[in-house]
Request: fold
Amino acid sequence: MIDLKNIHVTFNAGTALETRALKGIDLQVAKGEFLTVIGSNGAGKSTSLNSVAGIVPVGVGNVLVDGQDITKWPVHKRSKIISRVFQDPKMGTCEDLSILENYAIACGRTAPKGFGFAVNKDIKEQAAENLKILGLGLEDRLNDKVGLLSGGQRQALSLLMATTGDTKVLLLDEHTAALDPKTAAFVMQLTKELVAKLNLTVVMVTHSMSQALDTGDRTIMFHQGKIIFDIAGKERDSMKVADLLDLFKKDQGEELADDSLLLG
Amino acid sequence: MSYYELMGTFELSFIFAILALGTFITFKILDFPDLTVEGSFPFGASVAAVLITTGGPFFSNPWIATLIAGVAGFGAGYVTALLNVKFKILHILSGILVATALYSINIRVMDGPNVPLLGVDTVFTVFDDVEFMASYEAKTIFLGALVLAIKFALDTFLATGVGLSMRASGANAAMAAANGVDVGKMRLMGVGIANALAAIAGALFAQTIGASDAQSGVGMIIIGLASVIIGMSLLPSRLMWHATFAVVAGTVIYRLAIAVALNSDATGLNASDLQMVTAFLVVLVLVVQHYTSGYRAAKKGRKS
Reply:
């Protein structure tokens, strides 16, 4: 479903601040696969996710999704096949607009309304029905502004919005990192349920090694702009965080020096 | 204030309300502080005046001339948005650049600093011989109806898929793009529509006062902003069609306040004090809003 071919991304090219964020990434993600991505700060995990979403322009290489070469597509065009949930709950929704209006915008991602009315009876019923899944009572607050919701509620709403319509690929960029542990667990559980129900292809970037191993069915680790390991199946099932650290040490000949990866 | 003066105030209010609805689109919906209106308002006036006086049998029709003025205004706004979207020039600067260029362009269009509209048919000529009321009353009623029609058209547009996408583009551009909205296109369209409205207001203004003048754009941005800020502060609401009504009402309240301040002998103010009084009114509303919302927030136990 996702096919990254020899992706190179360089920030501030030709200046003293030149940073080679991605150094030739090759990655295939199969249809229906749930891939988790870990790595320390600046390793390239978010950059690679953003190169799929179209936020970061790719210097060299090709991005293919669902058999189409989307390397040159702008963000809004890619959003027809790729949906995203951001790390910051404020990013995924418009706080000045109502819950229903936000939901209608998300519906427009795959089925634009053009000059027809954005909010109609169908959308309203669909929104109320889908919001019930969240169990947060939002279906009774359709006309409330999203700005009135808590971070967890907004993130749950973002997730629901990202899975409306004919979505093929879901990109999650540390979408539980800004939430308290209890809310994070709730949003993570919701993620698993929605992904299973809709059989989506998912790439989830996380800062937490344990979350990366507990979720999905394949894990890759970024380090200094490269993928240093790629584990799946039985090998992954039996892995603990300590095993990952050993693997890193063996592979790189150094200790992993990012506490947040261990504490997460 | 006499009845005649009051009607005159309403008449101007309704013309400026068209401009203010445009300002509402740029400042409130798109979050695009657009200063092009300082140029597009007299641009609309110039285009309409030149067409009415020298446009030949078809284009000298004042209704068609006014409509073409709107199209010209759309073009001006489109250029401003294009400078921002395509060439990444800061939105405020884009507007200033286009407004500055328009000052010269307007003088070119009019082939001089002004064009008088005396002895020619304007959109208001038809009201000269209405039977059952004075022509200035008919004019005011017509302009009021026109403003309401534009308000309802805008409300309807903002409720469509494209309109909602435009609102999302201004409220959260990253989210809008992630949901398939071409944010650049929305800016081009929105700033274009806003300046089309400003140009139509300019065209009607010229036909009301009987001349188009290159200087008539001075202070337009603050008139639009004052109307939007006063209206939305006095009549706050989270519903779109309330907000557009508040903008129209804000324009009327603002013009009435100005008229009272400048006309009463007690204040000692005269017509040239208009801009100062406007700035003072806007500051007053914002300061009052700051203190009252701070007070409300403090009562709820939150930090302001």
Notes: The two ends of chain A are 29 Å apart (CA to CA).
